Amino acid sequence: MFFGAVAALAAIGCAVAAESTPVTDAKAEVIFASPEKYSDIRDAYTATEMGQKAILDQIRDYIVLRAQTVVPAGEKLTVTFTDIDLAGDFEPWRNGQNMDIRIVKDVYPPRMDLEFKLTAADGRVIKEGKRQLRDLAFMGKITNNPRDNLRFEKNLLDDWLKNDFPKDSRG
Known about the structure:
The structure is a single chain. The chain is of the alpha+beta class. The chain contains three helices and seven strands, in the order αββαβββββα. The protein has helices at 4-11, 49-70, 151-164; strands spanning 23-24, 28-32, 76-85, 89-90, 102-103, 111-119, 125-134. The chain has a five-stranded mixed beta sheet, covered by helices on one side. It is elongated and about 55 Å long.
């Protein structure tokens, strides 16, 4: 399975956050609004709840990590995902075990819909908005970690963070 290692880690005791429970950090909070309605966060053709939670945990952890470098001290970024469609898809006509392999092609680009709010320490909203993240040229990009199952989604998030939170925008 494409996300087999992730699901295995979750199975042996890694903490898995509840689907709708926000997870906070000093600089970031990530919320998955109604993940059961997301377009595609499947870990296999017949999705497992544990695998889906592991995928969401990876996305959350990545944003929390990246927030450490893009969010200035004393500010907080809250990201609420409203839809996610992972790169690739499962092709059931491949039969047997092959139907649980995520096939990544140009016709299956990653998509993420989110709302965000950047707040100051006093609660004042500095910036907020909604974004529909898309990258139809995702297959042509060089990635830092070609073995990362979520590399295309992480690239999409990196592009968004670079565009909306440039390091030199507030000195």
